């Protein structure tokens, strides 16, 4: 295909086809590379049975990954400012693929913890910084909110298609252990192919490497943290991600509390996780562009999410309420996915310099993805201790996170306006 060019290029030097090939590659990758670690979001009951673990242990696997990720997020952003995107993307993809194939052997729970630490290193320390930066390198600054929204739409299409294949594979194999093994082998193969495509076709971008500072520069990290509005954006993203991850518990809620069948639950889980992105990503990206504020758009998503969470609490836990639960799940997925899809856009909104953009993404990630460290184990323990009544507790916690998130967006907007006024006065 000849997509790679010799020397360095900018977004002005690549064709429209090249740009969207790269955005599609990295967006599809962001959908698939994390699927093995979050497989319980779609196959909660089958995966739990295949591994032979409790709700808390299944949640702890994700928490172990989250702890590793939290340690790696900031250096991953700095690494993204120091190395070529094509090198990081290819090594991250291929390393994750190998660990996914080992995971397919269905080892002990303790060994799964070790594997999830390894995947935290390959998918976060090495790969993570490439997602937002490749999209940013492929477009002008003012185009970023719309492009990242479209990126999440591609994420949704890829996740939905691959997820439906996963559901078909699992449904075709009655044995739950063999079914989950086949799904993981398939995922590993797709991730490996993406790694090969990255090294072959991703160009060297001009300005993607900051040659003026040392590796893991604290100066860059401090500059990113001190930049007006960045911390509020990061705290807001933390609430966005907490509510977004809480949405995964609508999967066991449908099957255990409302009696929805496993195949239907898996399908709805896919629609909530990926399919809804076909609308949520681009729609809210356009809304954010029209409003000229991703922060205001995220604020609105939180407000709608709160209304839906209250409805979840009020709906009786009865098999006859299954269809209502399905509708609420899809709606909840739209607003949580939508907020998540543009969650990094406020960084572009505050005007963070490209030289420390990757580092700023690392700061955003360290704080923003903190819920992975505790929320899955916490929610799993609630379900182990309280049974079906635990779902209402989880929904109440989600409401609290959404309210805090709204306050963070208000503060982020204030910080941006104050900084803009200061700059205008200086000029």
Structure, described:
The chain has 19 helices and two strands. The chain has 427 residues and is mainly alpha-helical. The protein has a two-stranded parallel sheet. α3 (55-80) runs antiparallel to α18 (371-386) and α4 (85-103) packs antiparallel against α8. The N and C termini lie far apart (48 Å). The model has no long low-confidence stretch (mean pLDDT 85).
Record the SSE blueprint.
Layout: E1 8-9, H1 16-32, H2 44-51, H3 55-80, H4 85-103, H5 109-126, H6 128-137, H7 144-172, H8 176-201, E2 204-205, H9 218-226, H10 230-246, H11 250-257, H12 262-275, H13 277-291, H14 294-314, H15 322-341, H16 345-349, H17 357-368, H18 371-386, H19 390-426
Parallel strand pairs: 1-2
Helix pairs in contact: 1-6, 1-7, 1-8, 2-8, 3-5, 3-6, 3-17, 3-18, 4-5, 4-6, 4-8, 6-17, 7-8, 7-12, 7-13, 9-17, 10-15, 10-17, 10-18, 10-19, 11-12, 12-15, 13-14, 13-15, 14-15, 14-19, 18-19
